[in-house]
Amino acid sequence: MKELKCPACQGSIGLWTFAKAPTPWHLKCGRCKAKLTLGKYSGVTFVIALFGVFLAIYLVPSFLVLMLAIIIFEVGGYLLLRTLEVSLALKQ
């Protein structure tokens, strides 16, 4: 798996940086604070987000299960981006 890197400072974008972003469309570099975009993979992220919303609305019976679903969504999204070898770009 390719490591996610900031195009501005070449710093590593780790799971914690990804998890701190409220959505994948609000991603910022932890080192230089550059706003980043997923480029052509925004559609993939949108589908993952829709799946997460579906789980939260229809299948989540309790708060603890909701928190577990959010954690799985964050980790799964990050690993998917690394597996697809996404190159991050600076947001205009």
Strand elements, count? 2
- Overall structural class, as computed from helix and strand content, comes to mainly alpha
Largest sheet: 2 strands, antiparallel
- The rough form would be described as elongated
Q: How far apart, in Å, are the first and last alpha carbons?
A: 27 Å
Q: What strand order characterises the main sheet?
A: 1-2
Low-pLDDT segments: none
How do the strands and helices of this protein lay out in sequence?
Blueprint: H1 15-20, E1 36-37, H2 42-59, H3 63-83, E2 89-90
Question: Summary?
Answer:
The protein has 92 residues and is mainly α. The protein is built from three helices and two strands.
If you had to describe this structure to a student in words, what would you say it looks like?
With 92 residues, the chain is mainly alpha-helical. It has one domain (15-85). The chain has helices spanning 15-20, 42-59, 63-83; strands spanning 36-37, 89-90. Strands 1-2 form a two-stranded antiparallel ribbon. The two termini are 27 Å apart.
